[in-house]
Amino acid sequence: MRTETTLSLTSGRVRRATRFPKSVDPGLDGNVPLMDSFTVDVDGPVHAIDYGGQGDPLLLVHGLGGSVANWIELGPRLTSLGRVVAVDLPGFGRTPPAGRSAHIDAQQAFLARFIGSVLGGPVTLVGNSMGGLIAMLQAARRPELVRRLVLLDPAAPAPMEWRSIDRNMFVMAFGSFAPPFGKAVLNAVDRSMTPAQRVAESFALVTADPGGIGKETTAAHVTVAAERRTQPWANTSFLTAYRSILVRLLPHRYREVVDSISAPTLLVHGTADRVVPYVASARLAGRKPDWDFQTLEGAGHVPMLERPDEVCKMVAEFFENATVVERQAT
Question: CA torsion, points 212, 213, 214, 216, in degrees to nearest 10?
Answer without folding.
Answer: -170
